[in-house]
Amino acid sequence: MDERPIPTGLKIATFVMFLFLLAPLIVVIPISFSGDAFMMFPPTSWSTKWYRAIFADGKMASAFWTSVKLAVVVTILSLVIALPAAYALVRLRPRGADILSSLFTAPLLLPTIVLGLAILIIFARLGLLATFTGLVAAHMVVTLPYALRVLATSLSTLPIAVEEAAATLGASPLVVFRRITLPMMKSGLIGTTALCALVSFDEVVLSLFMTGPRISTLPVAMFHHVEQQADPLVASLSVLLVLLTLVVVLIVDRTSGLAKTFMK
Amino acid sequence: MSPSVITARETGAVPLLRRRSVLLLLLLAPIALLNALGFLAPMLNLARMSFYEIEPTGAMREAFTLMTWEKVVSDSFYAELIIGSIGLSLVLTLVTLICSYPIALYLHRSSGIWRTILLVLVISPLLTSAVVRTYGWIAILSENGMVNNLLRFVGIAPMRLMFNRTGVIIGLAEILMPYMILALLAGFGRLDPRVEEAASTLGAPPFTVFRRIVLPLTLPGIALGSLLCFVLAVSSFITPKLLGGGRVFLLATEIYDQAIVTLHWPLAATLSIIVLVIFGGALVLYSRALRQDM
User: Fold this and answer.
1) Largest CA distance in chain A
2) CB-based contact B243:A230 (threshold 8 Å)
C-alpha cells in the first residue's frame, strides 16, 4: 500500500519527537549510577550506591511490599468479582445490561483527582483511611471497570456454539463454564490479571488520598520523596521498576500475545 | 396440546425464571456493591458537600447554603485559577498535538516490524509511572539538569525551566503524547496515501498537499486527540505538583491542597464539580465539531 517514500522532513520530525517522548526514561538510566549526593546531569562520579540505598531505606522497602501485597489482593478480588459480572452481562443478558455495564465502567470516565476526593470523604467517615482495606477498596474502584471491560470483550468474542454443544450433551452450566468457557478465556484472563496488577501497582492519585504516615504505597512514597529532595534514589528505583514492568509485559507476551491483550 | 402439558410447562417456567433472577443477583451483587460504595455514594456525597456550611471556626456543618459557591464565584483567585487551568490545558493540547502529529503520521505510513517497534515505544511510557517520568523531567530541566549544564557548557546563562508554567507544559506534553498519538492513529482511517499521490501527480507542492489533503482528512483524529488531551490536562495532578513546585496554581493541585492540607472539603468538592463541568463543556464542543465535520 505504501510505495510512496516517506519524506525526509517527516522522518526527522518523527525522530526528534521520539527523542522528546523517551527523554525522561533515557535520562534516568545514567543518573541511577550516579555517585553524587544530589541529582546532577551528567553525574560527576559513578557508583551503585543509590541501588544499595533503596534496600537500606526502610520506608521504600515497606512501601514496596505494601504495593506488591496490594496489587496481588486487588487483582485476585477484581477477577473474582468481575468474572461473574461479565458472565451475567454477556451470557445471561438481563434487561438493562448496557446501562449496568456503563454504570460499572463509569468510574474510568472520572478524573482520579475528583474520584480520590469523593472516596476520601466517604472512607473518612467509615474509618477506612490509611488502612490496607481502604486502599484495596479504592484501587478496585478503578481496576474493576478495566477487568469487566476486558473480560466482557473476551467472553463476547468466544464461539458460543462450543458451549451450546457441551450443554446439549448434558453438561451442567457450571461444568460448561469450568471446562469450556474458562479455558477458552485464557488470554483474556491473563490480560486482565496483568492490567489490574499494573494499574494497582502504578496507581498514585487515589493512593495519595488514602495513605497516611502509617501506610504508604511505593508510588506515593516516591512522590513524597521527589517532592522533598532531589537525589538519585528515585532514579535507581525507577530503573528497577521499568525492568519489573518489562518482565511482566514479556510474560504476558509469551503466554498470550501482547497485541491480543492490549489492542484486542 | 393437552391441558396437563401446559400446566407442566407453566410450573416449570416460573421457578426457572425465579432461579435466573436469583443467579443474576448473585453474580452482579458484588460489583454493584463496590460500585455503590466506591463510586455512586462518594460522588453524590461530593455534590452534596459543596453546599455544606463552614463555620468561622473552620468546622464543617451539614446545611444547604451557597456559601462555598459564592466564595468561588466572587473571589478573583478562583476565577484566575479556573481560567488559568483552562488556558494552560488549551496550550498543552496544542503543544502535544504538534509534537504527536509527525509520529502518528509516520506510524500511519510505516508497516511491518518497524511499525510494531515504534508502536511499542509509543505505548511503553504509558506503562511507566507518571512519578518516574516526571522525575526524569526534573533531571532534564532542573538547576543542575541536562539542559542547564549543556547551556553552561556552551557559555549561555542557565534558564529557569522548572517551578513555573514552562516546566509544567514541557513535562505534561510528554506525559500526554502517547494518548494523543494513539487517538490520532485511531482517527487517521480516512487518510489514503493514493489521494496524496494523486494531488502531487497533478502538480500540488508538498505543503499544499498537506494543507488541502492531509490536514482535512485527519481532522477527526485531531478532534478526538485534542478532547482526550484537554480532559487529561485539566485533571492532571502529579506532574503539575512536582514540576510546578507549588508555584503553579491549577484546579487539580488546588483540589488536593484544599482536601489534604487545609481540610476545606466543601471548597474541594465545589472545585471538583467545576472540573466535571469543564469536562462536560469539552465533550459538548467536541460532539458539535464532529457534527459540523460530517
Assistant:
1) 74
2) no
Q: What is the pLDDT of residue A259?
A: 53
Of B32, B136, B235, the CB nearest to A25: B136
* Of residues B121 and A261, more confidently modeled: B121
Site from A114, A210, A234 to mutate, B interface, most B CB atoms within 10 angstroms: A114
Interface with A, mutate which of B17, B28, B105 (most A CBs under 10 A): B28
Closest residue, chain B, to A138 (C-alpha): B38
Query: CATH assignment of B78-293?
Result: 1.10.3720.10
Find out whether A70 and A217 touch, Cβ atoms under 8 Å. Answer: yes
According to DSSP, the β-strands at B53-54 and B60-61 are antiparallel
The interface residues of chain A toward chain B in range 156-195, judged by CB-CB distance below 8 A, are none
Q: Could you tell me the pTM of the whole model?
A: 0.88
Cα–Cα dist B66/B81, whole Å: 20
Among A10, A89, A121, the residue with its CB nearest the CB of B46 is A121
Amino acid (1-letter code) at residue B52 = Y
Contact A117 B235 (CB under 8 A): no
- Look at the block and give the residue holding cell 537525589: A231
User: All 3 cell numbers of residue A231?
Assistant: 537525589
* Complex prediction ipTM: 0.87
Query: How many Å apart are CA B101 and CA B112, to the nearest integer?
Result: 20
Angle formed at CA B194 by CA B191 and CA B198, multiple of 5 degrees = 120
Q: What is the pLDDT of residue B4?
A: 44
A7–chain B Cβ distance below 8 A for any pair: yes
Domains of chain A are 58-228 (1.10.3720.10)
Residue B210 makes CB contacts below 8 A (sequence gap 6+) with none
Q: Do B132 and A28 touch (CB under 8 A)?
A: yes
Domain residue extents for chain B: 78-293
A227 touches chain B (CB under 8 A): yes
Chain B interface includes A229 (CB < 8 A):
no
Is the predicted pLDDT of residue A222 greater than 80, yes or no? yes
> pLDDT tier at B64 (50, 70, 90 boundaries)?
confident
Angle at A230 between CA A227 and CA A233, to 5 degrees: 100
Nearest residue to B136 via CA among A97, A179, A236: A236
